[in-house]
Write a structure and sequence with these properties.
Blueprint: H1 2-22, H2 31-42, H3 47-65, H4 68-87, H5 97-117, H6 125-135, H7 140-158, H8 161-181, E1 187-194, H9 197-207, E2 213-218, E3 225-234, H10 238-248, E4 253-258
Antiparallel strand pairs: 1-3, 1-4, 2-3
């Protein structure tokens, strides 16, 4: 129930950021939301409707590629954002464009971070990036940055380059706040120590598209056998992986650390 509430609240914060801070000043957001804003500004289509129409095919693809739980939460977030953008009037409450860019970006980052904590996403480029990163070794962060750069360039050509630079400021602030709210790390290393090693291994590999290393260990105090599972995941998967671990062994010891660099295959090798 708290997860659903978090998804709802986070999505509403994004709506407020868009319709009260960014859109009135023609400042774009990152991702598919930015594309929706551009469409709404150059066509009669409402931003909320554009956001839903652009995300719908990606949600269908993601439902089969990324897991029903994650996409189910994402669908809820996309629906709340789309309906909110449709119903909430576009009315700027701050006249200064720089302040609107900064605070709009910060509110967007806060909302997105809360949605991430609820094991979901706001759709759009996140879904594209996660699907591509699972099929190749292309870095997710670089892919998302490249797609966001397209939004910035398009806004510059359609409106003016001042708006494009304000959009860049907004996207930068959004990214920083997302990292502060959700996690500071793009990639994380998990060390799971549990008595239910085989069950944990099967549950992890069934639900997470990552490789896993299993080692045997002995408790220093109890002198009992333990399994040590080590995996590297992306920040988008953290909330879901924590839930999966708790389902198998709520008393498992889990150490989560920052990963500076990953060499070799980051995704799970294919056996096809």
């Amino acid at each position: 129930m708290m997860r659903i509430l978090g998804l709802f609240v986070g999505s509403l914060i994004i709506v407020i950021a868009f319709n009260l801070f960014l859109i009135p000043h023609k400042v774009m957001s990152s991702g598919m939301s930015g594309v929706s804003m551009i469409l709404a500004m150059v066509t009669p289509i409402n931003t909320g409707l554009a956001n839903f129409l652009l995300n719908f095919p990606l949600l269908v693809i993601g439902f089969w590629k990324l897991g029903k739980k994650f996409i189910g939460n994402t669908i809820l977030s996309v629906l709340v954002i789309s309906i909110g953008l449709y119903l909430v009037p576009v009315q700027g409450i701050v006249h200064d464009k720089i302040l609107s860019s900064i605070f709009g970006g910060a509110l967007t980052g806060l909302g997105v971070g809360i949605v991430f904590r609820g094991s979901g996403s706001t759709g759009g480029f996140d879904i594209i990036g996660m699907i591509v990163s699972r099929k190749s070794d292309f870095p997710l962060g670089a892919l998302l940055s490249g797609m966001n750069a397209v939004v910035i360039v398009v806004s510059g050509f359609l409106f003016d380059w001042d708006s494009a630079l304000y959009t860049l400021v907004s996207i930068f602030v959004t990214g920083k706040v997302v990292d502060a709210v959700y996690t500071h790390h793009v990639k994380l290393t998990l060390m799971i120590i549990t008595e239910k090693g085989e069950e944990m291994r099967q549950h992890f590999l069934t639900n997470v598209y990552r490789g896993l290393t299993v080692m045997n260990g002995v408790g220093g105090y109890s002198n009992e056998q333990r399994s040590i599972l080590i995996a590297v995941i992306s920040r988008y998967e953290l909330a879901e992986v924590k839930r999966l671990i708790a389902e198998v062994d709520p008393s498992a010891f889990v150490n989560i650390t920052e990963t500076i660099e990953v060499m070799g295959l980051f995704h799970r090798p294919s056996h096809n």
